[in-house]
Write the structure tokens for this entry.
Amino acid sequence: MTAFRLAHVPGAFEWRNHPLAWQVGPDHSLTITAGRDTDWFIDPAGHDAKDSAPSALFVPPDRHFLWSAHVRVAFASAFDAGVLPVYVRDDLWAKLCFELSPQRQPMIVSVVTRGTSDDCNSAPIEGPAVYLRIARQAHAFAFHYSHDGEWWHLVRYFSLGPVETVRMGVSAQSPTGQHCTVIFSEIRYLQGTLQDMRSGA
């Protein structure tokens, strides 16, 4: 099966790179296992471009929305991550990651790609789970994370230009390891957006 649906998500998911394994849980969670050497990154130095991370994507019907999930990662190797991506085309996309640093510290990481990838490490996180959220407001996007799913911290506020259609979803990666399993639960899509991206709401 290449397309599937989750409750409360207004669109069918399709795979962009197939995972090693995946499963929809009875609580409408989605578990993805990424295989070895899976990544999604265009090196700004021009040395390498990777596009192998398994991603389940759908097309939101609205131009203003909130997309969020509780993300639990079975961290094992550097750069293992659970991800919420925004995809326009192969050279225009962004991702909000819960990722293991080379120093063995789980971190919030954001990547914005316009031809090449702009990679930024943000807050360190204690433990294997966190909430991630993407807010769209016309041509602008905001990345947030939360410890409790109620109070949100801004990670990045940016634009991918005047694009009409985007694809949203979830993704997993294991660039240096053998595999990485990520559980996405409490997956939510809400129409509308935030009046103030920095308010914590």
Notes: Residues 82 and 172 are 5 Å apart (CA to CA). The chain is about 0% helix and 55% strand.
